[in-house]
Amino acid sequence: MSETSRDRTGDATREPMVVIEGVNKHFGDLHVLRDINLTVGRGEVVVVLGPSGSGKSTLCRAINRLETIESGTISIDGKALPEEGKPLAQLRADVGMVFQSFNLFAHKSIRDNVTLGPVKVRKQKKAQADEKATSLLKRVGIEAQADKYPAQLSGGQQQRVAIARSLAMDPKVMLFDEPTSALDPEMVGEVLDVMVGLAKEGMTMIVVTHEMGFARKAADRVVFMDNGQIVEVATPEEFFANPRSERARDFLGKILTH
């Protein structure tokens, strides 16, 4: 098998969790996703890098149909992504999403933000959801903040709440769309530490980020995108030491020298 075909199909030893085949997407005349093919294995951490406007966030949002696609297929754990209705809502419950902005409910306590999905969507009993929320808030290091409201927390703490909220749904895969880009620099590390911990625990993760340290430390593979296309896929060691494409070399040259 060639290097490229192995990269495109993922690690053959892993059971496929996310399969993206022939996906295209336009915004008007702009072709933002061009024939995207990528397989992410169960328990794999894939970091998506690339310049602004390369299609990274659109790809991330297409995986749970926050963005529609015009052609191609996306499947999660063997099930094709439904177009709408209750089946889509059910599948979205299996896909955790952490955004740049934390999207917490300002009028609800931290605990209630975390328990809302399990109670409303998973139909868990409130006591069970509360117990799990306590465990998850402890896991992300903010159990002492459970009865506060989002405005009383720092940005880094709010993002950790957002991660706990996603984990409360027992997702099969977690999507992270620039999870640290809205944070002050001193808060970035506390969020990345939680994400590294998730990676070590075997969570399937697709992470759009500019954090090269996270890509080096936690990724199984790096996907480099430019102009709506996947330009290359490699291990972090290969990508950072010897990128194959001139576009990736140019990107890294600009990023790593600042």
UniProtKB/TrEMBL annotation:
| Claim: Metal-binding is one of the keywords in the record | no
Query: What's the Enzyme Commission number for this chain?
Result: 7.4.2.1
Subcellular location per UniProt equals: Cell membrane
What SUPFAM superfamilies has UniProt attached to this entry? Answer: P-loop containing nucleoside triphosphate hydrolases (SSF52540)
What main location does UniProt list? membrane
The UniProt record lists the keyword Membrane: yes
Which GO terms of the molecular function aspect are on file? ATP binding; ATP hydrolysis activity; ATPase-coupled polar amino acid-transporter activity
Q: Which residues form a coiled coil?
A: none
GO CC terms: plasma membrane
Pfam families referenced in this protein's UniProt entry, alphabetically: ABC_tran (PF00005)
Q: EC class of this enzyme?
A: translocase
Catalysed conversion reaction: a polar amino acid(out) + ATP + H2O = a polar amino acid(in) + ADP + phosphate + H(+)
Q: Where is the ABC transporter domain?
A: 18-252
**Sorted alphabetically, which keywords does the UniProt record give?**
Amino-acid transport, ATP-binding, Cell membrane, Hydrolase, Membrane, Nucleotide-binding, Transport
Recorded protein name is ABC-type polar-amino-acid transporter
State the species of origin: Terracoccus luteus
Q: Source taxonomy lineage? A: Bacteria, Bacillati, Actinomycetota, Actinomycetes, Micrococcales
